[in-house]
Amino acid sequence: MHRTLLRLGQVLSLVALLATFGGHWVVLQSFAWVTMLVENAETAPLSVAVEKTFDGQHPCAICKSIASAKGKEAGQQKPAPVSKLTLFWERSQSAESPLREVSRIVPGGNEMETRSAAPIVPPPKSVTV
Question: In angstroms, rounded to a whole number, what is the distance separating the alpha carbons of residues 42 and 48?
């Protein structure tokens, strides 16, 4: 039972990943090409059927509907404008180093106790016995 659920989760994750990156269009287009190749091979030699299938001049009904749906989907998707992408924290000019002044809240009161001593650099090495 556990392996079955694990396999189901893997399959569903793969399907979701394919759908996210447009893999469903690849699957549908492949199905359309195979269908066209079989239909063309019934009336012509295989070399002519392959050429007619992939030349783009003789699309089938499935190919036309896929192209139409892809066009509609592309028209609906508008990327959100990105004003500024912050990858790292940028320190402002007026900010002071947090190592210079360490504050802590005193229990039972609203006042803060301030300590100006910086931590020991480098930290003490741990002793292993």
Answer: 11
